[in-house]
Amino acid sequence: WVWRSGSRTRGSPPGPPTVPVIGNLHIFPKRHLQIKFSEWGSSSKQYGDIFSLKIFDQTVIVLNSPYSVREVIDKRSLSCSNRPKSIISDMIIPRGMNLGSGRFANETWKSLRKTTAQLLSPENFNKFIGCQHSEAIQLALDLAHDPEAWYFHIHRFTTSFATTIVYGRRSPRVNSPDVAEFLHVHPQFLCALDIGTFPPVDIFPVLRFVPERWAPWKRAVKDIRMLHNAFYGRLLRAVEDRLKQGKGNGAFMEEIITDAVNLGLNDREVLMNLGAVVIQGSDTTSAALQNIMLCLATNPDCQTKLQEELDQVVGGERVPNADDLQHLPYLKAFIEECNRFRPVGPLGLPHEMSDDEVVDGLLFEKDGMFHDERYFDQPEKFDPDRFLRNKFGVKEGVQDDPGRRSNLLFGGGRRVCPGITFARSSMEICTAITAWAFQILPAMNTTTGELILPNLDDYTHGITATPKPCKLRIIPRSPQYIDIIQRSFSEATANFVPYEAELDQEGINSKCQI
Ligand code: HEM
C-alpha cells in the first residue's frame, strides 16, 4: 500500500510521471503554483486541460479550462462542494465555522451561506450604494491629500465599507482601530493557510501530535487564532452593546443577532466567523483595486482612452456616479482586462470530491485560464479592447470554450463567491472616480528623470495574488477636480453619520475631515 500510494488510480486524469510513495511531491511547485500549472496544462497541452498530481495517496486535480470548470465544479456541484481538509485551518477556526474554509457543505455551512448570500445579494446591494459612493469619494480625497499612501487608502476603503455593512461602523482613517487591526491580523491568517508556511501537517498528520515545545508552529497557529478571535470578537461585541443600549443602526449583524435562533445561528462563535468571512472576502477587492492602479500606471494609452470616455460621459463638473457606470463600456473592458491579466485568485479556492465522478472518461475520485493562447491573442499583452471586440475577450473566429462565463474569476458551483456584486461595483466606481480625477503615473527618479515601473511579476503568492506596495505618482488632472471632490465629500458625509457614532467613544478621530 505504501509503495503504491504515490501512483495514479487507473482512469484518473493524466499528469507528470510519479515516483513510488511520494508521487509528484518532488516536483510540486512551492510558490506561484499557477505558473507551473499552466505550463503543464492548457498552454503547452503537455497534459491537457485536466491533469492530476499525486502527493502520497492524495490526488490533486487541476482544471485548466472554463469547460472543465463547468463540467466538474458547476455541473457536479453536489459532489464537489466540500473543501479539502486543512488541519491548520481547523486549528484556527474549528467546527467548520468559517463559511469559506469550512470543510463540509453541511447544515452550518448552508445557514451561513444563505445568510451571507442574502446580505450580499444584488437586491440588498441597493441599500449600500450611497455608502459605497461616499467611501469611494473619500478614497479620491485621500489620494489627493496623501498620494504616497495610495496602497493603504485602498485597504481603508474596502475594510471600512465591509465593516459598515456588517457591523454598522466605519473607519475614517487607515490607522482607525478596525482597519489597523485587520491589516495586522489578516495577512497572518492568510499566511497560515498558505502551503509551506508551516510543516505539512495535512500530508503527515502525525506531526499534529508532536508536543508544542518541539513544534513552534503550534504556538504560532495558537497566536493567530487568538488574534483572529480577539478582533472579530471585539467587532461582534460592539454590535451586541449597541443593541443592549437600544442604539441600533440597522447593521446586518444586528438583524442576525436578533433573529439568530430562527436562522439556526445561535452559536456566538459561528456569528463571529460569519462577520469575519465577509470582511476577509472583501479584502480580495483591495488586491483587485491595487492591481488596477498598477495597470493604469503601466498602460498610459489605455488610461488616456479611459479618461476620454469619462470626460465624454461625465464631463468636468461632477464626480462619476453609479448611474454613469452602464454608459462606460471601456471602463468595464479595462477592469475585465486587469482581472484577466493578473487575476486576484489565480487558483480560486480548492474543492474536494465527496463522491467519485467520471467526466469525459476521466475519473474524479472522491478525496480528491486566463492566459491560454488557444483563446487569447497575445495573452501577455495588456489590451482592454479585446473585451470590446468580444464580451469574453477571446480571439475572433476561434471556436470558444463552451464553458466560458464572465464570472469565472469568482469560482463556481455551490461555493461560488457570494460577493460578486459588491466586488464588481467597488472596482467600477473606484476606478471611475480615480481615473476621472487623477493621472496615475509610475514613480520617477528625480535625478535622472527615469521612470521606475512597478513590477507586474512581483505579486504575493498563496490564496490571493496581491501586488506589493510600490511608489506611484498620483497627480490631479486639474485643481478644479479636487475642488469638486472636496465639495462632493462634504455632501457625502451624511451617509456616514449612522456609522460614526461609536468613533468618539473610542477616543479616535471622530470626524472624517482630511
Ligand atoms: C475581486 C474580488 C473578489 C474575488 C476575485 C473573489 C473570488 C472568490 C473565489 C474564487 C472564491 C471561491 C469560490 C469557489 O470555491 O469556487 C470566493 C469565495 C468567497 N468570497 Fe469572494 N471574491 C471577491 C470578493 C468578495 C467580496 C467583496 C466578498 C464579501 C463581501 C466575498 C466573499 C466571499 C465568501 C464569503 C466566499 C466563500 C464562499 C463559500 O465557500 O461558500 N468575496 N471568492
UniProtKB/TrEMBL annotation:
Bilayer topology reads: Single-pass membrane protein
The protein's matches in Pfam families, at most eight in alphabetical order, are given as: p450
What this protein needs as a cofactor is: heme
Q: Which residues bind heme?
A: 417
Q: Any keyword Signal? A: yes
Q: Which GO terms describe its cellular component?
A: membrane
| Source superkingdom | Eukaryota
**Its pathway?**
Secondary metabolite biosynthesis
- Give the record's keywords alphabetically: Heme, Iron, Membrane, Metal-binding, Monooxygenase, Oxidoreductase, Signal, Transmembrane, Transmembrane helix
The keyword Heme is assigned to this record: yes
Name any one GO molecular function: oxidoreductase activity, acting on paired donors, with incorporation or reduction of molecular oxygen
The primary location reported for this protein is membrane
Instruction: Name where it's found.
Output: Membrane
Q: Which InterPro entries match?
A: Cyt_P450 (IPR001128), Cyt_P450_CS (IPR017972), Cyt_P450_E_grp-I (IPR002401), Cyt_P450_sf (IPR036396), Cytochrome_P450_fung (IPR050364)
Please state which protein family the record places this protein in.
Belongs to the cytochrome P450 family.
Q: What is this protein called?
A: Cytochrome P450
Q: What is the lineage of its organism?
A: Eukaryota, Fungi, Dikarya, Basidiomycota, Agaricomycotina
